[in-house]
Amino acid sequence: MHKDKDAALVNGCKQGDRRAMSQVISQYQRPVYNAAYRILGDMDDAADTTQVVFIKVFEHIADYDPKYKFFSWVYRIAINESLNQVKKRRPQEPLADSQASPWPGPAQVLDTRRTCNRVQAALMLLNEDYRAVVVLKHFSGCSYRQIGEILQLPEKTVKSRLYSARQLMKKSLQEDGSQVNGGGSHE
User: Smallest Cα–Cα separation from 122: which of 44, 36, 184, 38?
Assistant: First the structure.
């Protein structure tokens, strides 16, 4: 979103404008849900967490500091809330086959599900700090700088955590018998 549009939406939300609130939800619901799902590994928990995130966004909109990007602030709330849910419900279980996202294509559906389940299971084995950077980088498409803003970390720390997380996932996937390449792409 453009910075001026963000400012207008934030001001509208602060004044209780329901259209502005709807626009914020419309703009960020899918990325917030996707981040929550990747951290939690459960569709229902991700949906519940997404609702809680937007309640918190609107309750704390007055606390938003415009020197940061609005999406970074919203993502930070989403990541924090997702990680709080993880801590509340230990131990974690990987996705069951029936919970994987079904993609059309008769020849690829089974392979896609198995691969998704293996990646999700490997992701769930990571600690929360590593999982957050993987989700933001590979599932939400954030840059290292954006991840640093969201998690309030130096860019160097983001890169280090992402490298370590990739290595751990690679090892986990190799132990699982999955084929993986050399650790992912870099910016």
Answer: 38
Q: Of 65, 92, 119, which one is at a domain's C-terminal end?
A: 92
Query: Do 24 and 32 meet the contact criterion of CB atoms below 8 Å apart?
Result: no
pLDDT of residue 40: 87
Looking up residue 186, the CATH number of its domain turns out to be: 1.10.10.10
Domains: count for the chain:
2
Residue 121: predicted pLDDT = 84
Is residue 70 very low, low, confident or very high in pLDDT (cuts 50, 70, 90)? Answer: confident
Q: Tokens at residue 51, please?
A: 């609702």
Q: Which of 142, 149, 162 is nearest to 32 (CA)?
A: 142
Distance CA(141)–CA(40), nearest Å, equals 18
Domain boundary among 70, 92, 114: 92
Residue 31 belongs to domain spanning: 1-92
Alpha-carbon distance of 98 to 23, in angstroms, equals 33
pTM score, whole prediction? 0.58
